[in-house]
Write a structure and sequence with these properties.
Blueprint: H1 9-15, H2 20-27, H3 44-76, E1 79-81, E2 84-86, H4 89-100, H5 119-132, H6 134-140, H7 146-152, H8 155-166, E3 171-174, E4 190-194, E5 199-210, E6 216-222, E7 233-239, E8 245-250, E9 261-273, H9 280-317, E10 319-320, E11 323-324, H10 329-366, H11 373-412, H12 422-430, H13 440-452, H14 455-464, H15 473-496, H16 499-528, H17 530-556
Parallel strand pairs: 3-6
Antiparallel strand pairs: 1-2, 4-5, 5-9, 6-7, 7-9, 8-9, 10-11
Helix pairs in contact: 2-10, 3-4, 3-5, 5-6, 5-9, 5-10, 9-10, 9-11, 9-12, 10-11, 10-16, 10-17, 11-12, 11-13, 13-16, 14-16, 15-16, 15-17, 16-17
Amino acid sequence: MANYYSEIPELKFHLNNPLMERICQLKERDYRDKDNYADAPIDYADAIDSYDKVLDVVGDITANIIAPNAEGVDAEGPHCHDGRVDYASGTVENLKAMVDAGMNGMTMPRKYNGLNFPIMPYTMCAEIVAIADAGFGNIWSLQDCIETLYEFGNEDQHARFIPRICAGETMSMDLTEPDAGSDLQSVMLKATYSEEEGCWLLNGVKRFITNGDADIHLVLARSEEGTKDGRGLSMFIYDKRQGGVNVRRIENKLGIHGSPTCELVYKNAKAELCGERRLGLIKYVMALMNGARLGIAAQSVGLSQAAYNEALAYAKDRKQFGKEIINFPAVYDMIATIKAKLDAGRALLYQTARYVDIYKALEDISRERKLTPEERAEMKKFSKLADSFTPLAKGMNSEFANQNAYDCIQVHGGSGFMLEYACQRIYRDARITSIYEGTTQLQTVAAIRYVTNGSYLATIRDFEAIACDEKYASIMDRLKAMAVKFEACTNRVKDADNTELHDLVARRLMEMAAYLVMGHLLLQDTNRAPELFEKSLRVFINYAECEVEKHNNFIMNFDESQIANYKA
């Protein structure tokens, strides 16, 4: 039988990264659960074996249930009636399969019936699900909202809500409003504390809410009367069992049809505060969004894998002029580039996930005991790395997913424009990835400070110090040459001291940093497994070199007087 995990050897390679030993040690608290839980690992090898087995189950379900349902779900979509949402019939079957297999609450502690997985293997599951159906991935992977409730909720909330997610209930994060999209500090959904009810009451409208009829919602609302900025916003937990929220409509979308995107109306909906007042946007949404952005990066990599699968299979089968089109340079150039971007983007995704795992585990331990000075330094280091890598992972992988889906259709030629081929669904599903959970432009805003403060360059210099096989020395030299251009461009913009110039070229600088980071990560992967990555490394370095040179030429030759030409 098909299996979307075992058939992709690159996934098992990333699961066995050397950093995983430290991650497992921290997540398992030196494997202390082994005395109290029969399924808890006894050591590192046992932990990796457990992740491997679960990933195999997810790979089986996605290949043999979710993927065959994908076209039917795309055609049927969810339905709205009497203020509620009914999933497409295939989605219902998908959810049942995942719940029956115990694939919920994956990162939550065992005491809440979770699997106590690190973020890394959970993110891998999210990628695998997205290969089969990105729309279903939006429903299933929103379980990671529970991370925010676990981090900032109280013990009573943990005990009441986390086991429900582990048992298969669904979640949503209700942030966006008709007049508050990217500008979340403009949120006006009103939260008023009722002494009579002994709870908070929510009133207003939310829009573009993914899986909006979920069982448990995390809601951003204005708790401080008279405020108009982010300091007046708090985070609330809404339980669907309490009533008070109706679905006004399901949006009619270009893609991800299986995922209901809803407009919600809150009318005296009972809710409870999560964490402290006034920190909803400043602290809690930032944590929630960072997790969501990693999830969209995983979804994007899954879509790139799906695009590669479809393009390769079609090119091997389709004949023109007496031979398979895979043999034409114009075609194998496209397919090789899709694969190179896929491998480079995946390397960035999982390096980011590993950084997140280490700092999150140490942060969780700090709530149990005081960290040692060494542990505090480690947490600070990996927190900074995670924060700097997340916008790169989300921004670049979402752009790659769109490019790869586009090229997948091109490989199919006229057939790619026909609805009976999966590539058109992949293309439509990919388009949203560079928009939701923060557009690529917002990822640039998040990343650019790490360009100007030298963080990316420092990381790249660290990567340059990592030894590589002599056969790849020329590639290391090319990466070093690209870094010289990146540094020169950064200094050129900083020295100009022109805010408009800085903002105009910010995305070019971010992409230069990202190509260098991905190039180094792919080189490191090739050192360990040349049979998997050497071809992609050589193709990607050619591609990255051209992109870096393009941005270098633009920035170094740009005259600030030209800014006016870019204004409408």
